[in-house]
């Protein structure tokens, strides 16, 4: 919407009277980045704007600078499938610099109001950035609370030409679910949306009576509301990255169970799919035990599978509640277990040990694919060496098309190189150092960086320390080189010629 000078003045007057957002239309980037007006704090550096991104080269505007989120509280007043509904997000944060203004990642949806510590704030939309200017600068170290009300659009989604395909809000026949990877959390709520940035989340989801809601973590309780509605409250229990947030609404059956060491298991299944998906869902305890023997204790307080009643062929490692499409759970057992183990393995590598930058995605997807392939080889699937040799033959082509494992571009993030191509790097490392040393590297990786973000340099350094030799000369060409290095122990393996 184009806003004239007279129209802008009218908006400003109306906002002053109502306490609403001063402006919700976009402004040119240079205009909205001009210095903020208002008094400076009496001590320390003058207030300045927080950065609109954390500096990730692949997604420069992912995340935001100048503050750390301490908790999100999300309120969703869901009505019916594909129907907009009232929503609110409360973001509790601490300033890491003296802030004249700051950004939240927020895409689409209809913005209503923004307050900072209860006072109306100026809010400007600049693409996928929500730029908030508080009525007074926020001193460094000060805790503050942002409250954003908006109308959520549960049909909003975006598309990628890679394994992700569509992401954002995913409509289902009787509700909705969330697939936020890689940068779709901003379509769900105002966020500090980067995989390295995590905070606990409280979900308060109101639904019609007879319709259930689920989210990451623990069900705190349900509460009857006026108009035959029910409010469901969930606590994520652990800090969580935006791309791993899950919220689903529908006519669900909750299937409770117990995993190794008494771990609570909770599957969430559309009512008509409970019986048909039971055989493969019941294997979760076995999958947990198998992975724990290789990677150590499961790193969260509960786990479960959310059966996705959609046509999308995408599974997703949303934290403590993996999404697995219904068709995967109604088909071949080998294929179903590959997806189930893949998403579960992510809870060690990707969820608990987060990636530091998007270029480190090979550490997340490569590990999940490696353990998926290894499990499958032991349980009726193709031989591991056969699948790795096939990947080796195509590796130069993948490097040409999608970049080396640790050198993706934004459009090629979720191409096959980050999956089988990156699993091949881990297979090469195992062939280089031996299975016993490789196992110690893996367990040390998920133990040392549990609950933290880590990247490729940390992995290379840790592997070198455990192996007792500098592995950088070995791993660098595998991760960054233009051609696939020789495979240790397999001198006969050859990469196919590259085709343009």
Description of the molecule:
With 500 residues, the chain is α+β, with helices and mostly antiparallel strands. It folds into 3 domains: 22-29 and 47-249, Sandwich (Immunoglobulin-like), CATH 2.60.40; 251-347, Zincin-like, CATH 3.30.2010; 354-480, Neutral Protease, domain 2 (Orthogonal Bundle). The protein has helices at 5-18, 29-32, 274-281, 284-295, 326-329, 333-345, 361-378, 384-402, 420-433, 435-448, 456-467, 472-480, and strands at 48-49, 67-77, 85-95, 99-105, 110-116, 119-120, 122-126, 129-133, 143-152, 157-159, 166-172, 175-179, 198-199, 201-208, 212-215, 218-225, 229-235, 240-241, 247-250, 252-258, 264-270, 305-308, 322-325, 354-355, 453-454. The strands form 8 sheets. Strands 6-5-9-3-2-14-17-16 form an 8-stranded mixed sheet, with no helix packed on it. Strands 1-4-8-7 form a 4-stranded mixed sheet, with no helix packed on it. Strands 10-11-12 form a 3-stranded antiparallel sheet, with no helix packed on it. Strand 2 and strand 3 (85-95) form a beta hairpin. The protein is globular and about 70 Å long. Zn(2+) binds at residues 342, 346, 365. Pfam families: Peptidase_M1.
């Amino acid at each position: 919407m184009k806003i004239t000078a007279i129209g802008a003045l009218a908006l400003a007057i109306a906002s002053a009277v109502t306490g609403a957002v001063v402006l919700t239309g976009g402004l040119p980037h240079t205009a909205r980045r001009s210095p903020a007006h208002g008094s400076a704090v009496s001590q320390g550096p003058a207030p300045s704007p927080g950065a609109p991104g954390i500096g990730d080269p692949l997604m420069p505007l992912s995340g935001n600078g100048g503050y750390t989120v301490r908790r999100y509280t999300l309120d969703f007043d869901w009505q019916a499938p594909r129907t907009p509904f009232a929503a609110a997000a409360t973001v509790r944060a601490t300033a890491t610099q003296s802030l004249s203004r700051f950004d939240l990642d927020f895409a689409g949806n209809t913005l209503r109001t923004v307050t900072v510590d209860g006072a109306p704030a100026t809010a400007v939309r600049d693409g996928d950035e929500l730029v908030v200017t508080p009525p007074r600068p926020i001193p460094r170290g000060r805790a503050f609370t942002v409250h954003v009300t908006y109308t959520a659009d549960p049909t909003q989604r975006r598309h990628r030409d890679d394994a992700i395909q569509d992401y954002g809000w995913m409509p289902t026949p009787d509700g909705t679910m969330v697939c936020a990877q890689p940068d779709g959390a901003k379509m769900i709520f105002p966020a500090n949306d980067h995989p390295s940035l995590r905070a606990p989340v409280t979900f308060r989801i109101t639904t019609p009576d007879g319709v259930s809601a689920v989210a990451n973590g623990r069900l705190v309780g349900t509460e009857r509301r006026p108009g035959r509605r029910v409010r469901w409250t969930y606590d994520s229990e652990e800090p969580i990255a935006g791309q791993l947030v899950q919220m689903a609404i529908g006519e669900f059956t909750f299937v409770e169970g117990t995993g190794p060491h008494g771990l609570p298991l909770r599957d969430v299944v559309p009512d008509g799919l409970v019986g048909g998906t039971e055989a493969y869902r019941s294997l979760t305890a076995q999958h947990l035990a198998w992975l724990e023997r290789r990677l150590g204790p499961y790193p969260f307080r509960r786990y479960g599978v959310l059966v996705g009643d959609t046509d999308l062929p995408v599974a997703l490692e949303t934290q403590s509640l993996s999404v697995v499409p219904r068709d995967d759970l109604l088909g071949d057992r080998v294929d179903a277990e590959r997806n189930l183990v893949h998403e579960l393995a992510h809870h060690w590598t990707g969820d608990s040990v987060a990636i530091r930058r998007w270029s480190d995605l090979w550490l997340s997807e490569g590990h999940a694919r490696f353990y998926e392939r290894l499990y499958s080889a032991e349980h009726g699937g193709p031989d591991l060496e056969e699948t790795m040799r096939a990947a080796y033959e195509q590796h130069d082509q993948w490097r040409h098309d999608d970049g080396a494992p640790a050198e993706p571009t934004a459009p090629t993030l979720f191409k096959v190189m980050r999956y089988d191509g990156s699993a091949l790097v881990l297979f090469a490392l195992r062939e280089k150092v031996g299975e016993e040393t490789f196992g110690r590297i893996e367990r040390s990786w998920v133990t040392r960086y549990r609950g933290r973000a880590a990247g490729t340099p940390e992995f290379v350094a840790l592997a070198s320390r455990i192996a007792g030799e500098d592995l950088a000369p070995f791993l660098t060409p595998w991760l960054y080189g233009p051609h696939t290095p020789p495979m240790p122990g397999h001198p006969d393996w050859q990469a196919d010629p590259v085709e343009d």
